[in-house]
Recover the amino acids of this structure.
């Protein structure tokens, strides 16, 4: 056996072994991933002895296409003790007019359920969404604060299910994996990577049971805090410069010694992502480097690892059709590609139940998805070091 053949066999074997470790972590995560049992207001009353007041807080900037569907799903909650506060964050479209019309059309006995607030001028040193959420909390009356995005839609039982889930899981902060509404090819290739990373790299069993802040994950469409806990960690003011404020808040919850829960929320909340690939490119370029705390070493290590695990093996397998390679190298490389595709299929069946048919077929293009992710991250790094910001919701942010 030549040295080159031995080298290729060794490399391909190491890559397969590393991928198998991620596969085992994925299987464990799929087994322990909490899926909340749907609850009613009566269930909450029996379990807690009372129905606590819940404030649903919606920052909205230029969301005319989605805000009505979102708000109707919130005021339609089958939970009496709640208020829905929508803050118009200096929109330049019809967002505030749509919400005001909805308020005007509510019957008198329901008008107190929905309120429209208007944002103050964004001060220096704040990310726009974080300041909007901060302002919402100043008006909120609830014992629980449930933040959601203006492009999300909630099932009628969401609030009661979340409140009972917090109690059942002995948590003070709950966040959920939503149902992503994917339309374009770019979204279907890229968005599944958001939960692929979580389920392959993060041990979800430890998210709820260990205090380390690094073991935290959150999703903006559903963030529910006990109010006392939110205030104890400093709220959005403590993360006012964070682009990934949801994850930053989750880490602060853990750092302060409180417990959090990350659950399957596909039956509770769905969210629209992006209207075009250009919008997706800008959004991911704005946030991907922030996910690694702007550590160039960590980001480059992830790029190298991703390419080595998910792109190089299928390239080896493809090259074997044209260039003679050792059978063991071909076996390991083909096995690595098949294992990665299987991981994507299992995740699709769990995390994208409503859209599993097209996404299962696209699992075969996993190497392309990973390459796309690496390009997002490289562009995010470029923007950061060239101090080139991104235009988002009509505001310009410099990383």
């Amino acid at each position: 056996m030549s040295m080159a053949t031995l080298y290729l066999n060794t490399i391909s074997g190491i890559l397969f072994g590393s991928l198998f470790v991620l596969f085992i972590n994925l299987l464990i995560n799929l087994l322990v991933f909490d899926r909340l049992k749907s609850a009613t207001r009566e269930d909450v009353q029996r379990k807690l002895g009372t129905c606590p007041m819940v404030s649903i807080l919606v920052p909205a900037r230029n969301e005319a296409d989605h805000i009505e569907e979102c708000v109707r799903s919130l005021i339609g909650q089958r939970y009496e003790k709640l208020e829905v506060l929508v803050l118009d964050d200096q929109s330049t479209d019809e967002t505030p007019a749509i919400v005001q019309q909805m308020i005007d059309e509510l019957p008198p006995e329901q008008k107190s359920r929905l309120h429209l607030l208007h944002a103050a001028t964004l001060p220096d040193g704040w990310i726009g969404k974080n300041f909007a959420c901060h302002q919402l909390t100043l008006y909120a009356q609830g014992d629980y604060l449930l933040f959601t995005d203006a492009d999300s839609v909630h099932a009628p039982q969401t609030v009661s299910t979340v409140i009972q889930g917090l109690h059942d899981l002995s948590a003070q902060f709950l966040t959920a994996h939503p149902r992503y509404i994917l339309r374009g090819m770019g979204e279907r290739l890229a968005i599944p990577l958001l939960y692929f990373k979580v389920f392959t790299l993060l041990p979800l069993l430890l998210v709820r049971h260990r205090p380390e802040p690094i073991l935290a994950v959150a999703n903006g469409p559903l963030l529910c805090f006990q109010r006392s806990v939110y205030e104890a960690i400093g709220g959005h003011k403590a993360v006012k410069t964070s682009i990934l404020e949801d994850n930053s808040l989750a880490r602060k919850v853990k750092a302060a010694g409180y417990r959090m829960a990350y659950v399957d929320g596909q039956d509770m909340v769905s969210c629209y992502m992006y209207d075009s690939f250009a919008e997706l490119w800008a959004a991911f370029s704005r946030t991907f480097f922030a996910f690694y705390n702007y550590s160039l070493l960590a980001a480059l290590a992830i790029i190298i690892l991703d390419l080595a695990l998910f792109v190089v093996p299928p390239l080896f397998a493809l090259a074997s059709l044209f260039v003679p390679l050792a059978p063991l190298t071909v076996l390991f490389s083909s096995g690595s590609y098949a294992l990665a595709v299987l991981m994507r299929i299992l995740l699709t069946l769990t995390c994208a139940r409503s859209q599993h048919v097209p996404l299962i077929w696209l699992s075969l293009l996993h190497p392309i998805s990973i390459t796309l992710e690496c390009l997002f991250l490289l562009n995010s790094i470029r923007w950061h070091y060239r101090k080139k910001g991104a235009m988002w919701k009509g505001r310009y942010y410099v990383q």
Notes: The longest strand covers residues 54-60.
